[in-house]
Fold these 4 entries.
Entry 1:
Amino acid sequence: MTEQPAAAIPPAPPADPNPECPRCGKPPALCVCEGIVRIDNKVSLLILQHPQEQDRELGTARLTVLHFTNAIIKVGLSWPSLAKILGHPTDPQRWAILYLGSVKAAALLPDRDIVVVNKNGNAVDHQEQALREIEGIILLDGTWSQAKALWWRNAWMLKCKRVVLGPERPSRYGRLRREPRSDGLSTIEAAAMLLARLEHKPEIETALHASFDRLLARYRETHAVSRARRPRRYNRA
Ligand SMILES: [Zn+2]
């Protein structure tokens, strides 16, 4: 330990330069935790987040998990099995992972917004039955390359079902963020779509979209304020 020279006036305790909400991990200006509607979900949700995913402001993984009574987020690169993550035995074939490939739902089955695909990226037969078998959903959270790294490091994912999404409208992120996946959705939007459809509860989508809209509104507000404070010389308009 280094002895600090005694100062005449003791310095004030330093303010936390990075305060964040303990639940959602966001700066207070962007926290929408107090308005969260909790959902008692039957289809489980597991979000695996790459350790370098650092979108503290616009990331939605933690916010998504806070919505559900049956949801887990794990941060890491690899896990030996799905059972190890969950802490109990499970059949990986009853879990579906949101597939990263370039397959588009509309190109496979245009009348469906969730399509179960096989290892070759083709729609499986008996879609309804395949969807009914799903007990849990796995979402990979990170950039395109981070999500791909998670996919390649976890061989057990090959045993899971694969689903692709064909959302009717583009992501609510709009121009705020360039999304790498072909369906272009944020983690919260993908979870909303999957769980609402699988549980036949449109209110799940309504609740999650409401939170996401509030987050985006806060984000736009905060950034409009910081833009307004910027000196004129930075204004290129
Ligand atoms: Zn919060």
Note: Helices lie at 61-66, 82-86, 105-108, 127-132, 144-153, 187-198, 202-229.
Entry 2:
Amino acid sequence: MLQRISSYLTKQLPRISLECITTKRGRGAFPDIERPEYPRHYMLDTGNVCNLRCPFCQTGKKVGGVNRGLMTRDSFDVIIDKIGVHAKFISMVNWGEPFLNKDLLYFASRCNALGIRTHIDSNLSTKYWSEEEAERIVTSGLNSILGSIDGTTQETYSRYRVGGDLGMALHNLNILRAARERLHLVKPFVGWAFYINKFNEHQINDARAMAKDLGVDIWFKLLSCDDPSWHSKYHFLPGDPVLATPEWVPSIYPDWRAQSIVDTPLHPILPGVCVLPFSFMVINWNGDVYPCDVVYGEQFKLGNLLTQNIDEVWFGQEYVKCRSFLRNYGPQQESGSVCQNQPCPVAKKWLY
Ligand SMILES: C[S@@+](CC[C@H](N)C(=O)[O-])C[C@H]1O[C@@H](n2cnc3c(N)ncnc32)[C@H](O)[C@@H]1O
Ligand code: SF4
Ligand code: SF4
């Protein structure tokens, strides 16, 4: 999960002087800490339950501190009424397997009708899909589906995807691709995400060849984990071409940062720092709101979109504290914010 946003966190931004920073409103001005523009990009988790037990996933490990469940149609309808007017892109996944929610395709089609692009990551290993099921999925309005398949043999694959079935995942990837082609659809994009670890690093070329045979694009990423015995050689070679972001990625994931954030560093003394609380929102299956997909646990909640309106959450004190902490970044300040209290990469790297 960390890896999903770490590229944003570590982006090298140009150094500028303090005078260059402006908090004035207006086109190109740096986002206001108290009233930034509404986020255009969201993570809306369809549920934090899963059929697999991946050893470095909080859900796979069944880590406590959160209520588990699936988003209902009623909750989705309430939330989309609040964010739909602002949203351009919704990733309908965070801490669970989206295909375990029977209403996933309803959610996707509602977003599609509102002109909101949607993406999911999936283990593609919940059941063997028929051609009919594949057609329902590809005609739902989803814009992209990335299958998490970390190996080319059941043995290597299930080191991480514990309880997963490689044959099923590859069947489902293929049947989705075939359904899209048969129906002459331009979407969804169907791709393969391969998270490299110690046990599958020798299968990269095989995976590339298999993806080519299947007619899907593949994206190699590093598995995030604290256990060094899982680290592949690529974990020590961050500039290796295998890890290059494929060219098609920007067409799937639009850059969600406000232009002013791209142009102006969040804080002048840092080469780069997290900008998530300025232009992005993570919403749990039960409406709870978090600043990012790194924090895990209800103590990091900033509000709730079932019980509050978007202004109360987005302009609320908890969000303001996160932004203020990041904008005035440094050990001297005491904002008491989620961002200060969470040992995320930002805090680990620069705060102390
Ligand atoms: C929590 S999963 C939920 C979606 C789905 N269950 C899946 O695994 O694809 C969200 C994303 O995190 C990725 N992921 C899981 N464990 C990871 C890890 N240790 N390091 C980096 N990414 C990971 C998944 O592959 C997926 O792309
Ligand atoms: S398949 Fe996804 S949600 Fe399920 S345990 Fe693995 S990483 Fe977590
Ligand atoms: S806790 Fe705050 S600073 Fe850390 S990744 Fe999340 S939003 Fe960014």
Note: The mean pLDDT is 88.
Entry 3:
Amino acid sequence: MRVSGRIRILAALFAVLGLYALLELGILGFRCPQSEQQGSGGSHKIIPENTEHKDNSITVHLTSATNKPSTGFRRLRLREQDEARTTPQSDVNVLSLALKEMLSKVSRLEDLAREDRNRSEALIARQDSFLRDIEAEMKKETFSRRLKQEAADDDMFQLDRRAPPRVLTVPVGPGENGKATYIHGRDTRQAAEQLHNLYGYSVLVSDVISLDRKIPDQRHKLCLQEEYPDDLPQASVVMIFYNEALSVVLRSLHSIVSQSPPHLIGEIILVDDCSDKPDLMFPLEAHISTNSKLRNKVKVLRNPKREGLIRSRLKGVQQAQGPAVVFLDSHIECTPGWLEPLLARIRKNNSTVACPVIDHIDTKTFAYEQLRFLAGGFTWDLNFMWIYVNKEEMARRKSPIDPVRCPVMAGGLFAIYKDYFQHIGAYDPAMEIYGGENVEMSFRVWQCGGRVETVPCSRVGHIERTDKPYLYVRSNDTKDINIEVNKARVAEVWMDQYKRYLYARQPNLKNISHGDISERQALRKRLGCNSFQWYLENVYPDRLEHTVENGFFRAWGELRNVHTGLCLDFMDGRGVGLWDCHGQGGQQFFALRRPEKGKAIQTIGTGDMQCMGTEGTARLEVSIIKYCHNGLHESWYHNGKGGILLNTETGLCLDVGRNATSGTRAFVNNCTRTASQQWTFTEYFTP
Ligand SMILES: [Mn+2]
């Protein structure tokens, strides 16, 4: 593939580009209405200046029509690829960006091919010398024992004792084997940071890592002995994306196809929730349609307007052939053997929601890291949280690879039968964008006779983005979307009397409209579901510990200072001080809690895990401690309405001073029982 090959590719690209132009002009289809109201930085055009053909590669030089540095292109140097690269920005001219993307892809392919040749020659030379070393070392008894042990742990070296190893596949290249990749050079790092902020992870790192990189087997050894039935149900993967980086979406797709037996993946349904990044349009489809592994599996559906994760998934499922559906995020990487255990589990019990263990892909380096295996729970303000698997559940399981019952699933990744998904009420279609749907579905499945489990033999890597682009909701109609409303819908339909736990923490949710819930209530009746009390008792007893009914909470709500009438507030997340009472809970919600099991400390919590405490050398400042560790400095005594708050460690009282106003920091002081040391919670509970 020399000159004629390149001409063919270019011709194809320009044909594609022409088609794209028609689409852009609205002649061939829809455009997301949002892409017109895009960006905050004004409009910029990126103009191809000249195109340079040199050494089998094409370099397109681009300049920005404006002089704003933030929209210009930088020449970047990367460790692995020293070719000039340009950084796509969010608000560049769509057409030239598409052109640039395609041209750079051509040159990138050629680069990769050339690199591959050099690389494989170097690799063979390296492997040869490596093998010679091994053969010499193998003669030494101790080394051979150690090697055998390592070989058992590491599938990279498939050594066979009987025959000397011939071919070792040791992938090289950035990110291979799940290793970390680092960005070098100051300019590059700066550009990387900008993009990191835009996407919530380092796109530059993702872009240099192979789309089909190898991730080592992450499974427990016992998993390798598991045998799965031949007739596992075939799965349709449903994956929603919104303004994800192209290379991240593509790597997600490749990892599914590479790590799954082909007959078990019937299709991958990608739903674009109206992204406005141009490379997610043609470049994405061009890659899929020219890749033999993806071409026949992947279907792309596009929402003409933002629908959010929930309605997008419903749309994806509608198209799914089934019988199983596997939901995956668009920023994941599957690992060897991830699929079979999930499908085997739902096949065994068809009212199961089976979740993989979610490992961690680092947002900066894209390193794959195993996480400690945890279950999922919820906080009383209905956020998901990771929890330790409790002793009873540990004892119930006979093997470390037995599935773990999970009170709440994380929500992004799970397998379920399509029929069961529909039967159990799919999703609440009135929920907006994202958030709460995983809690809702978990309550519903458990309360209505199903179960949610994590299957330890299935491991999938996930990028926990530092910033979530889909949270920036630009509504198509003018109504403002408040995703917190989702929580109110969950509470109203599923939580019975326990909904007051949410409303105490977020009183505003009680008063705003959460929409019509009659259909969801009818669903609950139709399915004959259990009460929330039943759920707490049978599925999440640890949560039941932390209830008013159980005497855990002694008082809660706003914590008003008698002297000023102002409310205690954790203003910047750590510092605690006075602020005007806003009645919205959140940072002004405090709860007085009796000691945890086996502890002696009465604490004042803000969130479920946070505590108020004294800190610092002087121990006079009061702040929020992110994870309570039940130290004395977190211990408070309170003697009822208008009473003092005495810190046990210092023997001093919570005070704001005589001249306190909104914004004054709280501290501890000698107890004088003056009004500035008197405090009242909104609600007191008598044990
Ligand atoms: Mn995710």
Note: The pocket of manganese (II) ion is lined by residues 329, 331, 412, 462 (CB under 6 Å).
Entry 4:
Amino acid sequence: MLDALNRKHQLKVVYVSEIKFQKEVRLVSRQDEFAKEVRQNIQNGAKSHFHLRNGLVWYKQNRLYVPEGKMRDIILKECHDGPLAGHGGAKHTITFLKKSYYWPNLKNNVEEYVKTCLVCQQNQTLNNKQASLLQPLPILEGSWESVSMDFMVSLPPSRGFNAIMVVVDRFNKMAHFIPIEDEATAQKMGRLFFTHVFKHHGFPKANLEKVHKRYKDFVDKSQ
Ligand SMILES: [Zn+2]
């Protein structure tokens, strides 16, 4: 029911704007050289693909002639950027446009418009980005060769600490829970890592800079 009402409303809006649009086309066409020539030819009785109806120039059956200038830009935008068009390619836009409108050089104008459309260019860039292959985690051969780190932040303060750095060995899942502060720097975390992990298990293949960035992201998100 709601859909039917929306549709009715939409049709009404389209209908009203169509009348307004045709009024504008009629007005602009009076000064348009091509429209003037077509009218002249028809009045002279020349055989033509055009005819006049409601003071407008029509091509073949139902294609409205759009005079040169901003009216063509409006139509181009509607038939390419509009919700029903959704930035289709040039071919799609031409087909859509040719159902209702006509002007000489229409095809070239559409191609040029689509080529310079920013939204289409951005989509093109996204589509061209190649997905890289998944890199599986290396197979581990021993304990504390590779560790994962996580942080629990914004905890109630206890003995000057309000966060916990969790270091887990990926091989045997053993974990160290190291108390730290929200404000801990990379150097501080490095020192803690040395005291709590390295001293007991040796140095894993870890990148502390990356770890610190991840920790800061956690803290920022939790605030
Ligand atoms: Zn586009």
Note: Confidence is low (pLDDT under 50) at residues 9-13.
